[in-house]
Amino acid sequence: MMRHHILPAIAAACLAVSTASAQVADLRSHTEFRVCADPAAVPMSSEDGKGFENKLAAFMGEKLGMPVTYTWFPQGSGFIRKTLRAGLCDIVMGYAQGDEMVLNTNHYYTSAYGIVTRKDSPLASVDTLEDPALKDQPIGVVAGTPPATNMARAGLAKNMKGWDLFVDRRVENPVGDMLAQVKSGELGAAVLWGPLAGPLVKQNPDLQFTPLLKETTGPKMFYRITMGVRLGEDAWKRELNSLIRRNQAEIDAILRDAGVPILDDYGKELKQ
User: Fold this and answer.
1) Mean pLDDT of 64-86
2) Beta-bridge mates of residue 206
């Protein structure tokens, strides 16, 4: 008797999954390039359209022949659920490869964490967290990011100054605060994600960004960056993959112009 109860339940579950998949497929707009984005994630995205992800979105929309529209929401807890999964928008620019909350396109660039120092600092030649020159130096880092683990393993924990990972960038600016303290000398260095730090360092002639390409232990320092779409939207993903492949040179040019450090696919060296 139990088997007769299980089979209808399985059939109902399969029908529910099928229906859900159909509903997901119907959420995408075919008349607008609808982007989910943080309104204050400078230099990546901003409500004034000046972020490099805004420029990439404008480029993609132009290639697709669709106007770009935005759903703005601070990145952090609930971002994907309240934007992409709610059907309010169809794509998240700049999403790390492998995250299970979205369906990732092929990556369109690779970047890394690195060290920001003053150009005239004794630390300017440092290119690994195990460099003895970092000992006893105050170093800024975003708590919970991969380099924080490597820094602790390198014996730098006692001098680490941490900033929160998830903040409302409309009222807090951890990266800007860190760079200001490096410039003033309050911090000897800051260890930051390249796409965040690179464009801001490019605007400041006193600072430099050095990618961490020589780390041999702990979490990896480089990540491949994709565009994220809803789970199940495979046709949309394939369309974007084709667009990325055909326009990679133009995408690279937008990123380089912004100051984003671009690496080869294996995170070994800067992409030529």
Assistant:
1) 94
2) none
Task: Say whether both 131 and 48 belong to one domain.
Answer: no
Q: Is 140 helix (H, G, I), strand (E, B) or coil?
A: strand
Q: What would you measure as the largest C-alpha separation in the chain, in angstroms?
A: 80
Rounded distance, CA 272 to CA 100, Å? 31
Q: Rounded distance, CA 144 to CA 146, Å?
A: 7
Helix-strand-coil percent breakdown of the chain, rounded to 5? 35, 20, 40
Residues 48 and 136 in one domain: no
The CATH number of whichever domain residue 192 belongs to comes to 3.40.190.10
Mark whether 101 and 228 lie in a shared domain.
yes
Q: Which residues contact 75 (CB under 8 A, 6 or more apart)?
A: 38, 41, 166, 169
Per the structure, how many domains does the chain have? 2
Do the domain assignments include residue 71? yes
> What tens digit of pLDDT does each residue of 147-169 get?
999 999 999 999 999 887 666 67
CA 233 remoteness from chain centre: 21
Strand pairing partners for 91?
Answer: 35
Q: Provide the phi-psi class of 20: left if phi over 0, else alpha when psi is between -120 and 50, else beta.
A: alpha
